[in-house]
Design brief:
With about 120 residues, this protein is mainly β. It has no helices and eight strands. The chain has a domain of about 80 residues: OB fold (Dihydrolipoamide Acetyltransferase, E2P) (Beta Barrel). Helices cover about 0% and strands about 45% of the residues. It has a five-stranded mixed β-barrel with strand order 4-5-6-8-7. It has a three-stranded antiparallel beta sheet with strand order 2-1-3, with no helix packed on it. The protein is globular. The two termini are about 25 Å apart.
């Protein structure tokens, strides 16, 4: 089941640097005041990796994780829905969603997933 993307990023009110996840101080200017922002639009894949040795609770043979940048410059990591890494390349457009990433103790655990648009 897909849900609204449930992550919040933080934009420094002093210099405008965007942080996700939250930091007590801005990594750019050491400011302490932030504005909450939501990721918007589609995302662009920046980097990805494949994990073959998964912990207990995953039913897949491998897991593809990636870092993508949303249209409003929020960067976040999530699972990538891909049958093969051969179809992935940095710079491609991804459709983000918030859905179950695994089942733990009979309960769905939700997280960010990206699906290639090309």
């Amino acid at each position: 089941m897909k849900k609204e993307i449930a992550i919040t990023a933080y934009k420094c009110k002093k210099c405008g640097k965007i942080h996700y996840p939250y930091h007590d101080r801005c990594l750019g200017c050491k400011g302490r005041e932030f504005e909450k922002i939501k990721p918007e639009g589609d995302a662009t894949l920046l980097a990805y990796t494949v994990i073959f040795n998964l912990p207990w609770g995953f039913d897949q043979r491998f897991l593809v994780l990636g870092v993508a940048e949303f249209e409003n410059h929020v960067k976040a990591m999530g699972q990538i829905k891909a049958e093969s890494v051969d179809q992935l390349k940095a710079g491609m457009k991804m459709k983000p969603s918030w859905e179950s990433v695994r089942v733990q103790y009979g309960e769905d655990v939700y997280g960010l997933k990206f699906e290639p648009m090309e």
